[in-house]
Design a protein that fits this description.
By secondary structure, this protein is an alpha/beta fold. The two termini are 17 Å apart. Helix 6 links the parallel strand 9 and strand 10.
Length: 383
C-alpha cells in the first residue's frame, strides 16, 4: 500500500432503485483498495450487494459507529441514520432531478458532503428549492467505467435492468412487484419475440430476471450465451462485445453506453426516475419507446411528484401493474416495440453531447472520501 494511501474503515450504503446504485458503489470501491468496507442496511440489501460484488470486494462486519467515513448512494434514510452515529457522510445522489420534497433529501446540515451527479440542467432544472439554494453542493462527473474500448461484433444486448425496487420507504412493495411482472409481459417478452422474428443475433439478455422468466427467454433464444442477472463486472464485458444495446432507461447504463460509443435504444421506463432519465440523456426529439397515455398519464405523474417520491412511484407502479391483463394494451405495446426496433436510428437515441459532462465521478468521490475520513480515528483490521 503506498504511504500516502493509509488504510481506513468505510461504511457503505446503497438504495436499490434498480441496480444502478450498486454499479456506482462498485466503481467507487474499485478506486479504494485501501478501504476496509462494512455494508450498512438490512440483510436483504447487504446480501444483494455481496452477491453482486463479493467476487471482487471483501466486506467486513465492523461496528458502524466506529467507521472513519461513510459512502451513501441515493439512500437518504441511511445517510441520516449514519450521520446521527457521528460518522461523516459523503452522500452521492445520481438522481438530483427526481427529488422534489425536502423529505427526499438527506439532512444537508448533518452530512459532510452532498455530491450531485452532473446532468444537463438546462433540460430539467433542479426541482427542489432547498437543494438549488444549498451553497455546498459538489457536482461530480457521472460515475461510469473509464478507459474501456468497445470491441463489438457479437450482436444485440437486451438489458431489462434492476426491474424491481427493494425496501424503499413510502413505496408499496406489492405494487412495485406487480409492475415488474407487468413489464415482463408487456415489454420484455414482446421485444424478445420481435428480435427473434427479425433474425438479428442476440447474445445476451441481462437483468434481474426470475428463474421462470430466464427459462422462457431461453426457449426463445436457444443460442443466446447469457440470460439473467450479471455482476457489474460481467455486464461491462458484455457491453464491450455488443453492436447494439436495447435497454430500460437507467441512467448508469445509458451513461456507460455513451462512454463507449455503443448505439442504444430505450425501452419504456420501469420506475419513475427512468421517465426523467429518458428526457435528459436522449437526442432532441428522439423517438423512444414509451407507455401509451392510456397506461401512464404524464400530467398526473407530475401532479403526484409534488406529493413526494413515494406518491409518484406508487401511481406509476399502480398504472403499469393494472395494464397487465389488457389484451388491447398488450397489442398496442407490441406495436410500439416493433416500430421502435424497426425504425431505430443507426447510431441510437442517446445524445453524445452528454459525454461532455465527463466520466471521472468514481475517482472524484474516492478522493473526497479519503479527505473526509476522521483523521484521528484508528481503524481495526477487518477480515
Amino acid at each position: 500500500m503506498p504511504p500516502d494511501r493509509p488504510k481506513f474503515s468505510l461504511l457503505a450504503a446503497v438504495r436499490y432503485y434498480g441496480w444502478g446504485g450498486v454499479g456506482k458503489l462498485r466503481l467507487i470501491l474499485d478506486e479504494l483498495p485501501n478501504a476496509d468496507v462494512t455494508l450498512f442496511g438490512n440483510a436483504r440489501i447487504t446480501g444483494l450487494t455481496k452477491d453482486l460484488l463479493g467476487l471482487h470486494h471483501r466486506f467486513g462486519e465492523g461496528p458502524p459507529e466506529q467507521s472513519d467515513v461513510a459512502l451513501v448512494i441515493n439512500d437518504t434514510f441511511a445517510a441520516n441514520r449514519i450521520a446521527d452515529l457521528g460518522v461523516p457522510v459523503v452522500f452521492v445522489d445520481s438522481l438530483p432531478y427526481v427529488r422534489k420534497t425536502d423529505g427526499e433529501l438527506p439532512a444537508l446540515d448533518k452530512i459532510a458532503h452532498y455530491c450531485g451527479q452532473k446532468y444537463p440542467t438546462e433540460l430539467l432544472p433542479l426541482p427542489n428549492p432547498r437543494l438549488r439554494a444549498w451553497p455546498d453542493v459538489r457536482w461530480i462527473d457521472p460515475i461510469v467505467p473509464t478507459g474501456r474500448n468497445r470491441r463489438g461484433g457479437r450482436g444485440i444486448v437486451v438489458n431489462i435492468g434492476g426491474l424491481r425496487v427493494y425496501d424503499v420507504p413510502g413505496i408499496d412493495q406489492d405494487l412495485a412487484d406487480g409492475a415488474a411482472e407487468s413489464y415482463l409481459k408487456l415489454v420484455a417478452l414482446p421485444l424478445a419475440g420481435c428480435l427473434r422474428a427479425s433474425g438479428q443475433p442476440v447474445f445476451a439478455v441481462c437483468g434481474n430476471l426470475s428463474p421462470a422468466a430466464c427459462a422462457q427467454l431461453r426457449t426463445m433464444f436457444p443460442e443466446c450465451q447469457a440470460i439473467g442477472p450479471q455482476t457489474p463486472y460481467a455486464f461491462e464485458q458484455t457491453l464491450q462485445d455488443a453492436d447494439l444495446l436495447i435497454t430500460a432507461p437507467g441512467s448508469t447504463t445509458m451513461l456507460q453506453a455513451l462512454s463507449m460509443g455503443l448505439p442504444t435504444l430505450l425501452l419504456p421506463p420501469q420506475i419513475i426516475s427512468q421517465v426523467l432519465n429518458a428526457q435528459v440523456f436522449t437526442k432532441p426529439r428522439a423517438d423512444t419507446m414509451q407507455w401509451p397515455a392510456s397506461v401512464l398519464d404524464l400530467a398526473e405523474l407530475d401532479r403526484q411528484h409534488a406529493r413526494g417520491l413515494g406518491a409518484m412511484a406508487n401511481y406509476f407502479y399502480r398504472s403499469i401493474a393494472a395494464a397487465k391483463d389488457s389484451q388491447r394494451i398488450a397489442d398496442e405495446m407490441a406495436a410500439i416495440i416493433r416500430k421502435g426496433v424497426q425504425d431505430a436510428p443507426r447510431n441510437g437515441v442517446l445524445n453524445p453531447d452528454v459525454s461532455r459532462l465527463g466520466f471521472s465521478g468514481a475517482s472524484q468521490v474516492a478522493r473526497l472520501l479519503e479527505q473526509t475520513r476522521r483523521p484521528s480515528h484508528k481503524s481495526s483490521s477487518m477480515c
